[in-house]
Design goal:
Helices cover about 35% and strands about 25% of the residues. It has 6 helices and 11 strands. It has a 5-stranded mixed beta sheet. Strands 2, 3, 4 and 7 form a 4-stranded antiparallel beta sheet that branches. It has a two-stranded antiparallel sheet with strand order 8-9. A hairpin with a 5-residue loop joins strand 10 and strand 11. The radius of gyration is 29 Å and the shape is globular.
């Protein structure tokens, strides 16, 4: 009996470890930031060259540079002109600059501080703070930094995947023939109505499933313990 209980508790312990691992992984995925390359018209207005297709990410915190020296590490292409970069929980930055690989174009600091103009302090602007999961886009304005370089001013916005095109929406709609063939017959309707008492369950996350396994294991252990005690 003791061997059976030991196996049950061991299984519960393993399941709990998987739950903790799943939660830790989700937390690590939160340290992602997105950036959209400014279009040529915006950069031309700021008297800057075309950005190109390369996006580097310079990042730092109190411990120093996180992605190496300037211009930093290369970002990951997501779609179109959108790129992303993800940090781990043990190397979260306090400041970020997106640039085109040290080829003359960069954003202002994304750190929640201020960018002070070298030639005109009245042009000082507030830098956007780091907001994880957000997309940073050019506002169409520029600011001269302390080194005399024109920085692209950016702002955070929600990041959403592209909506399906009109053509895709139409192809997904069932035709008139399909609609008719999908309608249940009178016999099928009766059969389905008898099953209405069945309660459908929704999708369950992996964490809740594992917790249910733990609870069931412990419940089984209690029941088997009571049975063993009654036999004694």
């Amino acid at each position: 009996m003791k061997k059976i209980l030991s196996v049950i508790f061991a299984a519960a312990l393993v399941a709990s470890m998987f739950v903790v691992g799943a939660v830790s992984t989700s937390a690590a995925d939160d340290y992602t930031i997105y950036f959209e390359i400014p279009d040529d018209a915006t950069l031309e207005k700021l008297e800057l060259e075309s950005w190109g297709s390369k996006v580097s990410v310079h990042a730092w915190n109190d411990a120093g540079n996180l992605n190496g020296e300037w211009p930093g590490a290369e970002a990951t292409h997501v779609e179109g002109n959108i790129y992303s970069y993800t940090w781990t929980a043990d190397s979260v930055p306090t400041g970020i600059i997106f640039n085109n690989g040290d080829n003359g174009v960069q954003t202002q600091n994304i750190d929640g501080g201020e960018t002070v103009s070298k030639t005109d302090a009245s042009k000082t602007v507030k830098n956007p703070a780091i907001e994880w999961g957000k997309l940073y886009k050019a506002t169409g304005e520029g600011i001269e930094d302390g080194n005399g370089n024109t920085n692209v001013v950016v702002a955070a916005t929600d990041y959403k995947t592209a909506e399906p095109s009109a053509t895709e929406s139409k192809t997904e709609e069932p035709s008139a023939t399909e609609s008719k063939t999908e309608e249940p017959s009178a016999t099928e309707s009766k059969a389905e109505s008898s099953d209405d008492k069945t309660v459908a369950t929704g999708d369950t996350s992996a964490a809740w499933v594992l917790l249910a396994v733990v609870a069931a294991s412990l419940g089984t252990a209690v029941v088997m313990t009571k049975k063993a005690s009654s036999k004694d």
